[in-house]
Amino acid sequence: MTNAAGQVAHGFWGAVGNTPLIRLKRASDATGCEILGKAEFMNPGGSVKDRAALGILQDAVDRGLLVPGQPGLVVEGTAGNTGIGLALAANAHGWKSVIVVPETQSREKLDYLRMIGADLRLVAPKPFADPGNYVHVSRRLAEELGGVWANQFDNQANATAHERTTGPEIWAQTGGRIDAFTCACGTGGTLAGTARALKAQNKDIRIVLADPEGSGLAAWVKTGTVKASAGNSITEGIGQAARAPGNLQGAPIDDALTIPDAEALEHVYSLLIDEGISVGGSAGLNVAAAVRVAKDLGPGHTIVTVLCDGGARYQSKLFNPDFLREKGLPTPPWL
């Protein structure tokens, strides 16, 4: 459903994908490698999650659960970005959306969801084992309202969307000259799908999961058991402390790195002030992991990572000096 470069896209569904790779100058120069960021903030809904939203809804259409132009309802629990993609994609076909979000997510994403017409349901943050967790609340709401539950964490249509689009785009854009791919995981769809596509082309491409502190996915990659690392993170939508999502099962992952917030934020601020690229915290974490992998591989290699979304969605947190000081994190000097 993605548009080919240079062609006219048809609405939201046709405008997702074919985002450029951006050479990250400071990271590349510091490592002697080519570090390239997939500019997913340039999708129409502003994030990499537009791909998952489109893949999940296209699958629902293919299975006859939703029909374009006829009444339909999409329900999902999300940290925000998938909800934005789902709501916009649903709007384009005349469907309604109910989006369940933990109330601790950034104000900017919550305001955006309301602005685009989503029926926003805020819930208290609860661990996955609690019935009040936003994922479980969304599943129950879908059953009660008769809607399609997107189920982004375990719905394989999520990873398949990246296997069909993100991975092949990266392979084509690099001319097959890629040595490693780094990516953080929330649902696991971006990493799993992209990894499968890239490994199908060259099994030696190194796939590295980037994990925030407090998440257990790095331990899962290394030991097979989800065990949360020490600390916590202000990043949103990535990391899992309780389980490995269904989309990650069987994904060809070679290694995992745990990245502290301060290291990730260093790249967020550097990209903004030195290169004019505004990204959120997960992108900073991805770039930090790419830099570590580049230093491990040595000069002359090409590492691709994902610039998941833009920094404007986190202005009240990542660019709020009071919030950063409260968390003991570095504050950008221009703020």
Automatic annotation (TrEMBL):
PROSITE patterns with a match to the protein in the record: CYS_SYNTHASE
Cofactor requirement: pyridoxal 5'-phosphate
Coiled coil: none
InterPro entries to which the protein is assigned, alphabetical: Cys_Synth/Cystath_Beta-Synth (IPR050214), P-phosphate_BS (IPR001216), TrpB-like_PALP (IPR001926), TrpB-like_PALP_sf (IPR036052)
Gene3D superfamilies in alphabetical order: 3.40.50.1100
Alphabetized UniProt keyword annotations: Pyridoxal phosphate
Domain Tryptophan synthase beta chain-like PALP: start-end pairs: 14-309
Top-level taxon of origin: Bacteria
SUPFAM superfamilies tied to this protein: Tryptophan synthase beta subunit-like PLP-dependent enzymes
A Pfam family the protein falls into: PALP
UniProt entry tagged with the keyword DNA-binding: no
Protein's UniProt keywords contain Endoplasmic reticulum: no
Protein's recorded name: Cysteine synthase A
Top-level taxonomy: Bacteria, Pseudomonadati, Pseudomonadota, Alphaproteobacteria, Acetobacterales
